[in-house]
Amino acid sequence: MKAVKVYTKTFCPFCDRAKALLKARGISFSEENLDSEPEKAKALFERTGFRTVPQIFFGEDCIGGFQELAQLDAEQNLVDLLKEPSPERQ
Predict the structure, then answer these.
(1) Is a pLDDT exceeding 60 seen at residue 87?
(2) Cα-Cα-Cα-Cα dihedral sign, residues 1, 57, 74, 23
(3) pLDDT over 70, % of the chain
(4) pLDDT band at 90 (very low <50, low <70, confident <90, very high)
(5) Phi, psi (deg, nearest 5) at residue 47
């Protein structure tokens, strides 16, 4: 199963919602808070093109933020994407 990583910032309600959804589905994840990491935030922007958080990765693939995560969950593809070698990008 692919590793899940969630890039967050403090006081971000969408970050909290994304983490809660992952926990509710029994999906373990690592979290990286970008508040005091401007270089990591810059590198993440260069990699994804997005300045918003959360940014959620399944393995090396960015699936997007909370809305994309919720959409995948609604389509019941969330757990399947963790098993596939390379999820499709939205």
Answers:
(1) no
(2) positive
(3) 92
(4) very low
(5) -80, -40
- Give, in degrees to the nearest 5, the angle at Cα 35 between 71 and 64: 20
Tokens of 4: 């899940």
Lookup result for tokens 């810059």: 42
SS3 label, residue 29: coil
Peptide bond preceding 54 in cis form (omega within 30 of 0): yes
Would you identify the CATH topology of the domain 4-83?
A: Glutaredoxin (3.40.30)
| Per-domain boundaries in the chain | 4-83
44-69 pLDDT tens trace: 999 999 999 999 999 999 999 999 99
Structure tokens at 32: 């990286």
Query: Nearest Cα to 31, choosing from 50, 12, 4?
Result: 4
Q: In what order do the strands lie in the sheet with 61-64?
A: 30-33, 4-8, 55-58, 61-64
